[in-house]
């Protein structure tokens, strides 16, 4: 969910559930440096950043997808996950997310 949007109670619940799912999937390890991150200190980094421009380019389904998110430490580790500077990597991730969504819908 993008910053600045008003979220319903249900949306806030879904975000907190997804945070737990991401932390569990990543086994509590920072996806940038590989060190363990305490549960009460981790951040969820977007690989394709949560910006208006990226939502227009890639769509909400890519920006909000769990595969676009990773467990990280705050600061540099979070920033290191951003693949927006690498159009080929961003395109590959978006395509993979679309393929996974198609398989789930098949």
Could you describe the 3D structure shown?
The chain is mainly alpha-helical and 106 residues long. It has one domain. The chain has 5 helices and 2 strands, in the order H-E-H-H-E-H-H. A two-stranded antiparallel sheet has the order 1-2. The longest helix has 19 residues, at 87-105. It is globular, with a radius of gyration of 14 Å.
Key features of this structure:
106 residues; mainly alpha; two-stranded antiparallel sheet; 5 helices; globular
Q: What is the number of domains?
A: 1
Q: What is the H/E string? A: HEHHEHH
Q: How much helicity do the residues have?
A: 40-55%
The coarse silhouette is: globular
**Coarse structural class:** mainly alpha
Report the β-strand fraction as a percent range. 5-15%
* First-residue to last-residue Cα separation: 26 Å
Low-confidence runs of at least 5 consecutive residues:
none
What is the β-strand count? 2
Number of helical runs? 5
Q: Mind telling me the C-alpha Rg? A: 14 Å
Please summarize the sheet with the most strands. 2 strands, antiparallel
């Amino acid at each position: 969910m993008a910053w600045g949007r008003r979220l319903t109670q249900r949306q806030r619940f879904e975000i907190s559930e997804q945070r737990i799912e991401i932390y569990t999937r990543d086994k509590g390890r920072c996806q940038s440096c590989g060190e363990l991150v305490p549960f009460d200190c981790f951040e969820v980094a977007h690989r394709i950043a949560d910006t208006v421009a990226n939502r227009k380019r890639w769509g909400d389904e890519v920006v909000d997808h769990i595969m676009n998110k990773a467990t990280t430490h705050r600061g540099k580790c979070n920033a290191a996950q951003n693949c927006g500077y690498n159009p080929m990597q961003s395109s590959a991730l978006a395509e993979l997310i679309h393929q996974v969504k198609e398989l789930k819908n098949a």
